[in-house]
Amino acid sequence: MADGTRREDERTEPPDNEAALSARLKRLGERLDQASRPSETGFGARQTNDTSAFARGFRLSTELVGGVLVGAGLGWLLDRWLGTTPWGLIVFLLLGFAAGVLNVMRAAGVAPDRNLKD
User: Fold this and answer.
1) Number of domains present in the structure of the chain
2) Three-state secondary structure along the chain?
3) CB neighbour list of residue 78: distance below 8 Å, 6 or more residues apart
4) Domain assignment of residue 71, given as a range
5) pLDDT, tens only, 92-114
6) Could you tell me if residue 115 is inside a domain?
7) Most CB contacts within 10 A, which of 13, 25, 67, 114?
8) Per-residue pLDDT averaged across 76-84, rounded?
9) Which among 106, 94, 97, 112 is positioned nearest to 64, based on CA atoms?
10) Does the residue 118 lie in any domain?
11) Residue 1 lies in a domain
12) Number of C-alpha atoms within 13 angstroms, CB side, residue 106?
């Protein structure tokens, strides 16, 4: 046995549970190969969905940050013009935040858009 010879009563094929495990592993490998292949357009469906979600998230965050920055800028300019430091900045910063949140809600489809046809 140490010399590498086998006895006649030893099995040359794996036990049933090892054979079943090997077959399952082979099927899993085949399924993974099929799932990882790109579609006909060259891009997988998951990659397209991830890019779209990234773009939407970037748009929503830009809406919020833009509203806050515009409000802060208007408040700062109003303070410089009227000499009411820091009240204009505080008030318009809060108004800019509220406008940014409203824009994000509209862009996400949570709040309805304004109807300008009235």
Assistant:
1) 1
2) CCCCCCCCCCCCCCCHHHHHHHHHHHHHHHHHHHHHCCCCCCCCHHHHHHHHHHHHHHHHHHHHHHHHHHHHHHHHHHHHHHCCCCHHHHHHHHHHHHHHHHHHHHHHCCCCCCCCCC
3) 84, 88, 89, 92
4) 16-108
5) 999 999 999 999 999 888 888 77
6) no
7) 67
8) 93
9) 97
10) no
11) no
12) 12
The two tokens of residue 21 are: 């495990």
Kindly give, in sequence order, each residue whose CB lies less than 8 Å from that of residue 52, ignoring residues fewer than 6 positions away: none
- Site of tokens 């899993």: 28
The pair of structure tokens assigned to 10 is 């030893």
Band of residue 54 on the pLDDT scale cut at 50, 70, 90: confident
Asked if residues 23 and 15 have their Cβ atoms less than 8 Å apart, the reply is: no
